[in-house]
Amino acid sequence: MGLQAAFEHERSGLSRNDFGVHALDTWIGRVAGVESLPFPPAFADIDCRNNRLAWLGLQADGFIDLAMAARQRYGADRIAVILGTSTSSIGATEQAYRECDADGSFRADLSSPVLHTPHSLGVFVQRVLGLRGPCVTVATACSSSAKVFAQAERLLRLGLADAAIVGGVDTLCGSVLFGFNSLALVASEPCRPFDIARNGISIGEAAGFALLERGHGSLELIGYGESSDAHHMSTPHPEGLGAERALDDALARAGIDCSTIDYINLHGTASEKNDEVEASLIARRFGAHTHASSTKGYTGHTLGAAGIVEASIALMALETGIRPGTVNTTVLDPRCGPQIRMRTERAPVTRALSNSFGFGGNNCVLVFARGDAQ
Amino acid sequence: MNQHRIYVDGLACWSPQTPDWPSTRAALRGEAALLDPPARRPAPELLAPTERRRAPDTVAIALEVASRAVAQSGRSATELPSVFTSAHGDLAINDYMCSTLVAEPAAISPTRFHNSVHNAAAGYWTIGTGCMQASTALTAYLHSFAHGLLEAASQCIADQRSILLVAYDIAAQGPLGSVTTSRGMLAVAMVLAPERSAQSIGRLDWQLKPSSDTPPGPASAAAQALAINAIADCLPLLEAIAHEPDFALELPLGESLVLQLEWKTCNEPD
Predict the structure, then answer these.
(1) Quick check: A361 and B123 CB within 8 A?
(2) Higher local confidence (pLDDT), A2 or B262
(3) How many CB atoms lie within 10 A of CB A9?
(4) Given A206, A347, B229, B236, which is the most exposed site by the fewest CB atoms within 10 A?
């Protein structure tokens, strides 16, 4: 089921965890059949779950055709590739450790050095699209593929590229499932963002891409804000000061105030602390007319891909007027203001925000608008 | 192509054989031997004592050069956004995570997990200095320094603000070392500014240029010794700064694109 239909039917895409050798008791957002997808043989040296999902994402919604048309228009040298990920191809490194030779070296078919480095994502996407501009992978945990929009905007503004392929890919792997489990952040049930009884995240996987060009279009990035919490590696600032700073930076760059925002896609992980801090921030800054929701009950927390997934949902809201609700949630935390909605609604959206907050206190807020609103 | 101009207001370098910029410069000029025995890992003084002991090597060396470059620039760390770049991030933690997942997945340490993120050094820098400015963490594999410099220089020009650039890598450990060739430890930091100040060391004019030529690698014996590390693409720039008051240099950003640099030492008015 596509995202739009999932929102209309209010149907979560989470399923009981069946990933890996030792499956934790949790729910996940798993993309079915990634293992058995056809993968371009020329890239066998960097064949891994993450690049397979990248390949699937590039083929979705005609994106490859858009990218090829841009290459034709601007030239391969003038298109940047800026992608976000948290763990990239680490799943391949995990597999190589499981299947090590007796002498502790990697199996021959898992021995390409570039397979075991996080830029394997950028390398694959740039090569498969035949591009030759700047190519970099952003890895700021769960804000990664939001920050790619900011980095791309700067390159375009300075004339260092004429277009940018931005996006992000993150895939299920032992590191994130057992890592978040070690922090007691993983729920044993489908995640319930902003619910009074929420008890942790559901991890998901996703790939998403966008083509950015300079100038005006039907959908526009009109602002971005980036900041640091300066507080803790894995717990948000208790008053949300870092998140608020990113919000203020984004609004200032867009030249608008909170009252003009129709829809907010929240970070809303369903962790105790994130939702507490984010609910308070939204309640104190936005009016009741703003519809805010977390879509992580639909997709799971796709970590380094969450930025692009949720930017896409904000863009979908601008295009279609579908304002997703917060699925799985039944009783909202009393900290939530009237902005945070459980049900999907339909009403025109002119400006939309997307919040992404990552480990290390790394925050990014994006502001998008319909081109006809500017 | 557009050419842009920035200034370098702070420069720091650390490796076990050259544990500061003066010793790195002397070694790159062939005027001093590499330190033997090598220096021990620096203590990240910015962090609380418990965090200092447990800090990964990447965090320790990144915070060391960041602190020194910012001190030299005469600026407060709290006012500087930052770009952290590393080919691999903390390879020792990758080895720990992957081997623990084989042996006993439920025994993963929560601290080592949150330290495994590529932006751990950036996170600890902002926590240690109380800096709430934007911070990012990048990788471009063997072109990570050049891409970090490009992003920091772009932010410097786009927002007309000074910015901190920190680049580092460490050695691969365990089975990962059978494929990942990074060895030793190397870190470099720069503070970049949009305007010249009393602290400016050099002026850097930069632009992108398509080019498939392979620029010459580092020439000195010292640079070749340090080039065992995955952030070695910083060495041609460091070597040129060590040797020449003015120079032009191309840093590869990939197979067919370079960051073209022209450096002029700031010892006289522009």
Answers:
(1) yes
(2) B262
(3) 10
(4) A347
User: Closest Cα to residue B200, out of B10, B4, B36, B3?
Assistant: B10
In tens, the pLDDT along B213-225 reads 888 888 899 999 9
Phi first, then psi: what are they for A268, rounded to 5°?
A: 35, 65
Neighbour tally for A142: CB within 10 Å: 29
Once rounded to an integer, what is the mean pLDDT over residues A233-247? 97
- ipTM, two decimals, is 0.98
Which residue type occupies A17? Answer: N
Could you write out the DSSP letters of every residue in A186-215? B-SSS--TTBTT---B-EE-EEEEEEEESS
Q: Are B5 and B24 in contact (CB under 8 A)?
A: no
Q: Which of A26, A233, A234, A364 to mutate to test the interface with B (most CBs of B within 10 A)?
A: A233
Q: Which residues in chain A are contacts of B181 at CB distance < 8 A?
A: 113
Q: Chain B within 8 Å of A230 (Cβ-Cβ)?
A: yes
- Average pLDDT in chain A: 97
Among residues of chain A, what percentage have pLDDT more than 70?
Answer: 100
Counting residues of chain B whose pLDDT is more than 70, the rounded percentage is 99
Q: Is A82 on the interface with B (CB under 8 A)?
A: no
CB neighbour list of residue A60: distance below 8 Å, 6 or more residues apart: A207
Q: Which 271-330 residues of chain A touch chain B by CB within 8 A?
A: none
Contact A228 B87 (CB under 8 A): no
Q: Contact A206/A302 with Cβ under 8 angstroms?
A: yes
- Confirm or reject contact between B97 and chain A (CB < 8 A): yes
Q: For A16-39, write each residue's pLDDT tens digit.
A: 999 988 889 999 999 999 999 999
DSSP per-residue string spanning A91-155: HHHHHHHHT--TTS---GGG--GGGGSTTHHHHHHHHHTT--S-EEEE--GGGHHHHHHHHHHHH
Predicted pLDDT at A374: 61
Half-sphere exposure of A70 (CA within 13 A, CB side): 26
The whole-model pTM stands at 0.98
Are A111 and B179 in contact by the 8 Å Cβ rule? The answer is yes
| Interface contact B101, partner A, CB < 8 A | yes
Residues of A with catalytic roles: 142, 267, 301
List the strands of the sheet with A27-29, edge to edge: A15-16, A27-29, A203-204
Q: Which residues of A touch B178 (CB under 8 A)?
A: 104-106, 111
Q: Which residue of B has its CA nearest to A182?
A: B110
Distance CA A153, CA A155 (A): 6
Residues 61-90 of B with CB under 8 A from A: 81, 87-89
What is the distance between the alpha carbons of residues B187 and A61, in angstroms, rounded to a whole number? 42
Is residue B168 within 8 angstroms of chain A, CB to CB? no
**pLDDT tens profile A245-302:** 999 999 999 999 999 999 999 999 999 999 999 999 999 999 999 999 999 999 999 9
The alpha carbon of residue A21 is apart from the nearest alpha carbon of chain B, in Å, by 10
Could you tell me which of A203, A156, A184 has the C-alpha nearest to residue A13?
A203
What distance lies between CA A284 and its chain's CA centroid?
25
3-state DSSP assignment of residue B11: strand
A-chain CB neighbours of B124 within 8 Å are 233, 360
